[in-house]
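Supplementary Methods, section 5.1.

A reviewer requested that the exact input to the structure prediction be made available. We therefore reproduce it here, unchanged from the version used in the analyses.
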Amino acid sequence: MSANFHPLIYFIDYLLGIIMWTLIGRVAMNIFQKEDSQFFFMRVFVKYTNPLIKLFKPITPSFIIGPLVPLYVAWFFYMIRFYLMPWILGYSVMGMLSFPLESEISRQIYQFFNSF
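The structure derived from this sequence is encoded token-by-token as follows.
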């Protein structure tokens, strides 16, 4: 964690990031599996993302095809993380947090491959 943010900020961003990536993962998994598949990972993606999709149903346009609805909902979490959180924290530059979750993951991957 490179910046001096309160740990609660990191927790909120990590939670929103995990939700966003889970929704994106569901869309990617849906390319290869049906939503009612018995494959363990698909069942987990569907089980944990269905409540969010139902929550966003009132603002989801009807012209979006079913398999892409989780991507539409993930877009809201992206917008919250990139625009709303820095604005609430008082930063004048949007994207000031620069996605701590993804930064931490990329840093770990870089360290892993750099060790060889």
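Residues 28 and 71 are 9 Å apart (CA to CA). These observations are discussed further in the main text.
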